[in-house]
Fold:
Amino acid sequence: MDPPAEFLCPISGTLMADPVIVPPGRTIERACIQACAALAFYPPAVADLPSSPLVLIPNVALRSAILNWCERLGLPHPSPLSLDTAGDIVRRLMPPRQEQSRSQSQYGPPYQEQSRSQSQYGPPRQEQRSSQFQYGPPSQEERPQLNYGRPPPAASVRTRNRSVSGDDFVQEPKQRSGSVEEEIMAVLGATDGASPAEQKDAMASLRQATRETREMRLQLCTPRLLAALRPMLLSGDAGIQVNAAAAMVNLSLEAENKVRIVRSGAVSPLVDVLRVGHPEARDHAAGAIYSLAVEDENRAAIGVLGAIPPLLELFASGGAGHRARREAGMALYHVSLAGMNRSKIARTPGVVRTLLATAEARDRGSAEADAAAAALRKLSLMILANLAGCPEGRAALMDGGAVAAVVGVMRRGAAAPGSSEEEYCISALYGMSKGSLRFRGLARAAGVEEALAPVTECDGGGVGRDMARRTLRAMRGEDDEMPFTASGILGSQWGDASIVSEGLVSLRRPPHQRGGNHAGTSGSNTTQF
Structure:
């Protein structure tokens, strides 16, 4: 069985034994990043590290998850790589000339260049990585003995070779003139520093450019520009921060950009904006994280980098606007589709109370307010249904009174018969019923049987009716022998459903079925700003 992708070192492709977080937020095997620093060579996964000395933060949560995964499958725990082994791996990823020039070197402080070209605007350390070439992973025979994972895919990396006559660059031909990028970088990369007014104008230009066309968004999503955007997200000037966050939302609309943005280290500053940013910038940050979380590959990283607590706080905030709360809720929902994130969400203080309070919120009278409350209620039920798919989530839900609360939502008509809200309620009850004797007592006290009986008797079948029947059988202690599979149960109306852990169904509506307020011109999941 292959391990989850987040358990593998992006440099060695092996299961991590000593994972560390490297600013701006990537997790890498300790020996591999130390070897990269010693050899002054950085593959794509770490191509835009800050110029300051490396700060390695042990990723205790991920290490624990890896060890638990090994124990569950009866596999030996991975052993940390030696620095020599890691160095051999990194050397194999280097271009032939650079590998030859460094093969005789001893590990020591990375070479620091004293000056940099006027055409480069990254930190000095990045000056050593400008040319692009293709590289392949080490062969199976050359890898460390303990290797549960797959090798990293071939990708472009950046390096710079120095010669007696000067700099030797090898570059891929540019696909466009890059006039917009160059204009912005001319300001942000100025050696004497740009004034706040100039930075604000540059961010406003970038925001406008990213609104124009899909092609423009694809061309502007470059490592250099993303690296320049990160400090703008943390600016103390509200105008700079708001425009930078809005530009990040626009760039994230395109599917091809989503993984690139997360790998650039943009999630950590977006999380900081969620926590302490300007209110409008905070709203945009929630939209950006929602957009990025739509991509499966990004979800684990977003959870590890601390986005869950500020997203939950924004979702629960009565003072925030409806759009901001909706974006935060959609981000939480998509993040909760990753198994390791469900456990994180379940352990977040106050999460069940917040979700239940939103799900139980009464209509406010006006049509607009009622529609907003209904949308947030639905999001809460979607997240509750996902949380019920893991043991920690089930325990947290039952501790927080979710059984009675969900039944209450069904009884008072907030989840109308046959509606998607009712289906999410049934999903949550079904998930909590899995292997739990405690659920039986809580379900009897809450009147689950009375609430689900009409569902089991309705015509038309479907997943909702099947889960309701299974939930009632679990209440009665009856064996559930029929396996719950997508091919055997999912009807046509559930064609975009995803089966999450332990048979729970987590529903996702296809993007083209969402309301017009959720889609930009490119057909992505959120609006342009």
Q: What stands out?
A: The first strand starts at residue 19 and ends at 22. Strands lie at 19-22, 26-29, 57-58, 131-134, 156-159, 161-163, 166-168, 498-499, 505-506.
